[in-house]
Amino acid sequence: xxxxxxxxxxxxxxxxxxxxxxxxxxxxxxxxxxxxxxxxxxxxxxxxxxxxxxxxxxxxxxxxxxxxxxxxxxxxxxxxxxxxxxxxxxxxxxxxxxxxxxxxxxxxxxxxxxxxxxxxxxxxxxxxxxxxxxxxxxxxxxxxxxxxxxxxxxxxxxxxxxxxxxxxxxxxxxxxxxxxxxxxxxxxxxxxxxxxxxxxxxxxxxxxxxxxxxxxxxxxxxxxxxxxxxxxxxxxxxxxxxxxxxxxxxxxxxxxxxxxxxxxxxxxxxxxxxxxxxxxxxxxxxxxxxxxxxxxxxxxxxxxxxxxxxxxxxxxxxxxxxxxxxxxxxxxxxxxxxxxxxxxxxxxxxxxxxxxxxxxxxxxxxxxxxxxxxxxxxxxxxxxxxxxxxxxxxxxxxxxxxxxxxxxxxxxxxxxxxxxxxxxxxxxxxxxxxxxxxxxxxxxxxxxxxxxxxxxxxxxxxxxxxxxxxxxxxxxxxxxxxxxxxxxxxxxxxxxxxxxxxxxxxxxxxxxxxxxxxxxxxx
Length: 523
Ligand code: NAD
Known about the structure:
Layout: E1 3-7, E2 14-19, H1 23-42, H2 45-61, H3 63-74, H4 78-104, E3 107-109, E4 119-126, E5 129-133, H5 141-152, E6 156-160, H6 166-178, E7 186-188, H7 193-201, E8 206-210, H8 213-224, E9 230-233, E10 238-242, H9 248-260, E11 270-276, H10 277-292, H11 306-321, E12 325-328, E13 343-346, H12 353-356, E14 363-369, H13 372-380, E15 384-385, E16 389-391, H14 395-404, E17 411-412, E18 429-430, E19 433-434, H15 441-444, E20 447-454, H16 470-484, H17 492-509
Parallel strand pairs: 5-6, 5-8, 6-7, 8-9, 10-11, 10-16, 11-14, 13-14, 16-17
Antiparallel strand pairs: 1-2, 3-4, 4-20, 9-19, 12-13, 15-18
The structure holds nicotinamide-adenine-dinucleotide (NAD).
Nicotinamide-adenine-dinucleotide (NAD) binds next to helix 7 and helix 8.
């Protein structure tokens, strides 16, 4: 039996021990989930949503206990646990309570006139058993949101929480149990990488993964063996572009929050700041002064994962060796804990690891740019494309720049918060991921779509069916030219004939009397 130990990274204290699930237990969970699927998928949507409502109410009723548990497991300050985990989770539940029935209803679509008399629609059906594999940085929000989206769409879920924050996995298991979800509809499989691998090899019908690029690639490769669809929400190296006409004080405060909230362990952290040359010195001065005022344990919490803190230190060392200057911070704050001083760096360039790789820690490298074109080029010079921000009081310019950024998401005059708008689809481009959730896409991504075209079936046959005749060939030649060719390519007499031909062909094929010569088709 293997146990995971939960350490509170802000104090170094051992908080709990949680037993890992074995591969046999994972397979047994999959068998139970498959057995639970028919009843859950056929449960009317409003009843499924009632369980979600209970979950939301529980979260809110127990807001202090939930925030305290998250803080214990991650080291984040409690206000961030409420503001960036509990609040957006409750908000998206509320959003789907109101809109899921619309998003999941069959959608009528148009039917071209060549299929005259038919009608068409799309149905959204659950896929089966969805695996949700989560990271440690927002262990509540990044778990519950995909879990509940899959459940609303009618799927059962096998959930593998992060081994770095197992206490939150236990909390989520209890919340779903207390909300009264039927047995085996959501099962929590505590454990580390091996448990995650076991979940993937149990052949779920879809894998929703949030985590690093390296793991995402492994999961996608394993899923490919069985053609399991994957959604990957991966890392980022988000740029912030500050133009000289931005409200500079606002941009300074935005940069601080964007880089240091959750100790910089946000997939959409501000990881690179490009400032227009005329205001660069002033921006750096103000950022350094404001950073030094941030209070440990009040505005910024500890980091969560010891290995992540080592990576942050390695990025700083590499940058300094290549000529960067640490303007403030740059060191751990308290032995035995994972507090790390919010750090501002200048003199950075694209040869440094901290400009290329995801740091996922409280580092804010700042560099100047000369022109709009240069800013866009530098911002796009990354293998990531998760989020970005553009700062200017000229919204025409800001939107023009946003359009040129190769990024799944962009904020204008703000950072990160676009992810908390449940109406906006969320996901990355390039190495930042595949797929979108939130919004209607957040339910559709957990559905099989079935496209249906209905023919009333009252005619004996259709015009395109056998036998093929010269009239049919002529009719389709003319029709194709008419609909899709250059405007003048169908002379008027041909047009007149077309309708005659279509009508005659139709009548003939449907057994109506038609006097015409039957010729063979040219071979
Ligand atoms: P990680 O990739 O190390 O682990 C994520 C999860 O995958 C964990 O539960 C882990 O146990 C599991 N896992 C590891 N190897 C596995 C395997 N071979 N098969 C199946 N499961 C496996 O990531 P992490 O360190 O927990 O999280 C940090 C990363 O997540 C950062 O790169 C961050 O940018 C990214 N992230 C992305 C988003 C987003 O929405 N795009 C959000 C948060 C975090």
